[in-house]
Design a protein that fits this description.
With 223 residues, this protein is mostly helical. The protein is 65% helix and 5% strand. InterPro entries: RNaseH-like_sf.
């Protein structure tokens, strides 16, 4: 009975905490500023405590988009110092680091777009190899985005597990294919920052707890 009463007290407090509501927003500076302003206004005019960080749920697609853009905007300047001089691709062919770096320097993504709009251009074998590697890297966040899309009935309780899967699979790919890991780093660093921010929001833990498909399994794994 004491345990049940403790739970009742907790959920009474939780109901009060959630009364103001949570907001899903893009990760933009103006949104962060507006939440801070809302917090100040609620306290000054109504003496309502409102944590602007706790109640601002980052937009899942926007977070993934930021991570992906960091990869695409920096891949031409990737540091391959820790990458072996040679490796084997999916077809069993030996790839040489110097040739691979040279192919990246030509910006195969831009060349590919020019091929679509212009004639007379074509990619070299190594430039195609770079594009194939980028496809493998970006397929991971794409699958996470698909599971959180409207077609898959996205719910907040799946956000943290889906984001964790992106980080874990990127880390696994980086270990298996170091040359891909060098490209991934920029996006992975961003992903880890957002993952740390998620840890400051109790809403994620609450929705996972009340989700019958998750309950305490996530807590058991991480605590």
């Amino acid at each position: 009975e004491l345990i049940l009463e403790a739970w009742r007290d907790y959920f009474r407090i939780l109901k009060q905490d959630l009364a103001v509501g949570h907001f899903t927003m893009d990760n933009a500076a103006n949104n962060t500023a507006s939440m801070k302003k809302l917090s100040d206004t609620l306290w000054q005019e109504h003496e309502i405590k409102f944590d602007p960080i706790e109640h601002q749920i980052p937009c899942f697609p926007h977070i993934l988009n930021i991570c992906i853009n960091h990869i695409l905007c920096t891949y031409m300047n990737t540091d391959f110092a820790d990458v072996p001089s040679t490796w084997t691709n999916a077809l069993g062919e030996v790839m040489h680091k110097e040739d691979y770096i040279e192919a990246i320097a030509w910006d195969p993504i831009l060349i590919y777009w020019n091929i679509i709009h212009l004639s007379g251009l074509r990619l070299t074998v190594l430039e195609w190899e770079v594009l194939q590697d980028l496809k493998v890297v970006l397929e991971i966040p794409h699958e996470a985005q698909q599971c959180m899309s409207s077609e898959s009935r996205p719910i907040l309780s799946k956000a943290v597990p889906a984001f964790e899967m992106v980080i874990l699979r990127w880390q696994a790919l980086a270990k298996h294919a170091p040359h891909c890991g060098a490209i991934i780093n920029a996006g992975l660093d961003q992903a880890k920052q957002y993952y740390q921010q998620m840890g400051h929001m109790t809403a994620y833990c609450i929705v996972m707890f009340v989700d019958p498909t998750i309950c305490l399994t996530w807590v058991d794994c991480h605590w």
